[in-house]
Design a protein that fits this description.
The protein is an alpha/beta fold. The chain has two domains: about 20-85 and about 160-215 and about 225-254, 3-Layer(aba) Sandwich (Rossmann fold); about 90-160. About 40% of the residues lie in helices and about 25% in strands. It contains ten helices and ten strands. A six-stranded mixed sheet has the order 6-7-8-3-9-10, with helices on both faces. A four-stranded antiparallel sheet has the order 2-1-4-5, covered by helices on one side. α4 crosses α5 (about 145-155). The protein is globular, with a radius of gyration of 18 Å. It starts with a strand and ends with a helix. Bound molecules: adenosine-5'-diphosphate and magnesium ion. Adenosine-5'-diphosphate binds near residues 13, 16, 18, 36 and 41.
């Protein structure tokens, strides 16, 4: 079976242990949640999985039916070409380019011809339901649309895995529900293995098949939504940090 695996990953920043011996597995067609308080190491983990950060220990590997590929040491674009895509906290679109061009340049970067890249870009925007936005300048979009474009860009080239770093941050309830429906379709219709980093723990519990909880760089709990909801350890991790951001989380946990 195909899987993207982190094996005992560690990252230290000048003495700060951002990740310590973290194991994580992402499976095609499934949604894995990654939660934990601010500073837990969630973005650092995605950075290591996608080649933006070199780990101080451990390895990332891509298992396919025919081979086990060690991804450690590969550059971000090399990892992207092997079917592992990501979005960034805050979007990071090319703000001066039209929406469709944001997707097209990714296809060209992946080795597609201009015409094939443009056709896939248009089809992807339609699939997401934002085809009408294709000629808008990306920097003028409201951020809910910006996030959808960023997800569309990550889906160019049909990656096997997509890692989403807080895609619903700042969204209202109905906006987050729309996004949740899109994330479900990415797993069910495209068959991607999704890693979802999200502060909205209610959204994570409703969407994910499996959840990993990080606190201070350490995996403190893993399990299905019901077991995470009931976990004392998870509740304690959130209680120890800033109350104003974590109160909504504590309301969702048992
Ligand atoms: N490039 C960096 N240099 C130094 N410290 C960093 C760097 N990136 C992240 N950190 C620190 O590592 C810890 C984990 O950060 P991060 O992965 O961004 O957490 P999260 O995404 O869970 O909020 C934090 O203490 C953060 O300040
Ligand atoms: Mg983060």
């Amino acid at each position: 079976m195909s899987q993207l695996s982190a094996d005992k990953l560690s990252v230290a920043f000048a003495g700060l242990k951002a990740l310590s011996d973290v194991d994580l597995t992402i499976t095609p067609g499934q949604i894995t949640g990654l939660i934990g308080p601010n500073g837990a190491g969630k973005t650092t983990l995605v950075n290591v999985l996608t080649g933006f950060q070199t780990p101080t220990g451990g390895a990332v590997s891509l298992n396919t039916a025919s081979a086990k590929l060690n991804l450690s040491g590969l550059k971000p674009h090399e990892i992207r070409r092997r079917g592992i895509a990501r979005t960034f906290q805050g979007g990071r679109l090319f703000r001066d380019l039209a929406v469709i061009d944001n997707l097209e340049v990714t296809g060209v970067g992946l080795g597609q011809s201009r015409s094939k890249a443009r056709a896939e870009a248009a089809a992807m925007l339609d699939w997401i339901g934002i085809g009408a936005l294709q000629n808008r300048i990306a920097g003028t979009l409201p951020y809910t649309d910006e996030r959808r474009v960023a997800i569309g860009r990550a889906l160019i080239g049909k990656p096997a895995y997509i890692l989403l770093d807080e895609p619903a941050a700042g969204m209202s309830g109905p906006e987050a529900a729309d996004l949740a429906a899109l994330i479900r379709r990415i797993a069910a219709e495209i068959g991607c293995g999704v890693l979802l980093i999200e502060h909205n723990v209610g959204l994570v519990l409703s969407l994910c098949d499996h959840i990993v909880v990080l606190d201070s760089g350490v995996v403190i709990e893993t399990g299905d939504p019901a077991s995470i909801r009931a976990s004392e350890k998870v509740r304690h991790a959130y209680m120890g940090t800033a109350a104003e951001t974590n109160l909504p989380v504590l309301e969702v946990l048992a």
